[in-house]
Structure prediction request, 818 residues.
Amino acid sequence: MLVEIGHFALVLALLAALAQGTIPLVGASARSRPLMDLAQSAALLQFALVALAFAVFMQAHIGSDFSVRNVFENSNTAKPMLYKVTGVWGSHEGSMMLWVLMLTLFGGLVAALGRSLPATLRARTLAIQGLLGFGTLAFIIGTSNPFDRLIPPPIDGRDLNPLLQDPGLAFHPPFLYFGYVGFSITYSFAIAALIEGRIGAQWARWVRPWALTAWCGLTIGIAMGSWWAYYVLGWGGWWYWDPVENASFMPWLLGTALLHSAAVAEKRETLQRWTVLLAILTFGMSLIGTFLVRSGVLTSVHSFAVDPTRGVFILALIALVIGGGLLLYALRAPSLETGNPFAPVSREGALVLNNLLLCAGMATVFLGTFYPLFAEVWSGVKLSVGPQFFDATFVPILAPAIVAMVIGPVLAWRRGNLRGALRRLAPAGLGALLVPAVVLVLNPVAPPAALAGIALAIWAMLGVLTDLADRSGLGKMRLGGVWRRFCHLPRGIWGYAIAHFGVGVLIAGIVVSTAWRSERIETVRAGDTLEIAGRTLRFVGVTEADVANYHTQQAQIAVERPDRAPITLYPERRWYPVARSQTTNTAIATNGFGDLYLALGDPDGQGGWVLRAYYNPLVPWIWFGAILAALGGVVSLTDRRGRLRSLAGRTSPAVAPAGSADN
Amino acid sequence: MIRRLLVAAAIMVAIAGPAVYAVEPSERLTDPALEARARTLSQELRCLVCQNQSIDESNADLAHDLRILLRQRLVAGDTDQQVLDYLAARYGVFVLLDPPFLPTTYLLWLTPPLLVLAAGGVLMLRSRRRRPERVLSALTEEERARAATLLSERG
Prediction:
């Protein structure tokens, strides 16, 4: 009965979406207030109905209602409760439900918070959001109904893919989808602006916080996914240039370009058309990302839900969303006003340069991801595009973007002085030369690419610090005054500084962990020892046990270091009998500067076990960097110069910057 | 910060070493130079039955067989390129993760540099089309410097 209520709610939501997607558009062109105002109530209603359906679906999973096909296929009574909840989005149907929940949530937020928006812009934005909701809901109800029944209901379910029964995966999809779907709002705003035929100052003020919000979610989502792959897949890698990873990386690259160009559009009233185009393409990439994962067109370690027939529907949706958006852009953009002019060497100019490099990088990732598919279609040749291609093409394109990322913020708006900017950044430049030199002296066999990477990381980190010192007036006034200015820097500046510093930390993590990783793979017996990275690993033995829905073989390994307290690590292998699948559960000891990473391999049948031990220096910095980048985005969102206020459409109490209270 | 990085650099150096071992202990070659080449090569070869993994990462049986096969070729005296060619001849280009530069991949390899050139072209056009001098009234050098400082302070 409950399940049917959920099903009905989904169908009603489809109708609400249809109303939301059509009537306000008519209202906006006829200037009819009641028709336009329907958008808000429809958006809120649509969200409420989808939330109800989602809650029912979750209840079916929690209560192990195996008369629902999806629960039968993805759950089991013995599965731990956490994974009964998170298993809701572990399947195709469930992840589509999560997607549409986010989509309607964003629509509901615009409806609830958007009172200060011009009425026609709000009505049109919500209408586009409603049409997106209609498309997704039609897809769910038509091809992937989560409420399909099984008569008679089976006794027990087939269990969820054990790789997905993991705390990292539990929260990876919600963040990722928050990001993907968050860009639906910037898309809707862009299309609404094209329909209106004008891009006002209000428009840019609205687009930037939404782009930033979605971007933060996507950043965290990708970082979590990479962390999950790092500790679950058992060979210590964290990025594989896998199609599904690329699928989330492409909207991230464009989203990064979008949020910067939206910042320019907001502050300088220029680059508006470019911002609109980026908004369309970013959401397009989000959809293509979904298509990649959900259709199984491209093989990948992640495609646990593969169904080509659904791909046709999504493909049509993508064609409509991107094609329609671009067509409208082509028709309307020429008539939109051009923005304020600026010199090539200026902060705007640097942002344009970085936007172009980010887009070129995105196009390269796109090419590498889809090329095998194209090649097979037109020449019949099956070929592979592996990490080597991306390392050889993407990295050289993005490296200059990192160099420019440091210089841009130091340049003035409109017309900058490159020589002056470089003089101000001299300390960072000095550090970027010195540190790799020191590394080279200490380790003469260091690969040149790693040295260049270190230089880039130092440049990014010191560049931000130099700029902060400069903005605080260091060297121009007494230290007390510098400190006061430092504490009163606007949050927007702090946001940029934290995020850009995070990029430096991220690069340092990538470069150092790739170049200086060490590994030992040996067959060990109880009592054997193994040396790695100055540590002695003593293999104590393996114990076996049955836990919840799996059987475990758990190794005990004592890690000893001179002058340190010994620690014990427990890497294990799990066998999930219902899903008939084996997983490796790694054990990782981290000190923030490096990870000791242990994975238990196969037994040799004579009391020996293969043990894989890795020491990955600075690898945690990859995730620290990503977290800093997202944190920078959040700090920037709280800038009291009115960002949140414009987001909420009302005056929010001004939040004093942290630390200003003491001064 | 610099001190920290130096510490980190010291750590890196401490752990840096030529420690390269086979993916399965039983597969390892005794000659470390040959084994190092085998590891590099195995990262460039696709595990054909897996989803997007190199044979270096995969624990599938086929990956194991391929790792042994490539080591046999190396021991027999093949160069790296000969090993790759041998495997590509047996299993198709699909086995090569690093796509070779062939007529079918010209587009793949040439597009990225062309994209960068296109980006550069766009920048050139922009800077030619939009000279702010036309819009800005002439400022003295002093005024310009002052304005720049004020603008950069505003962030």
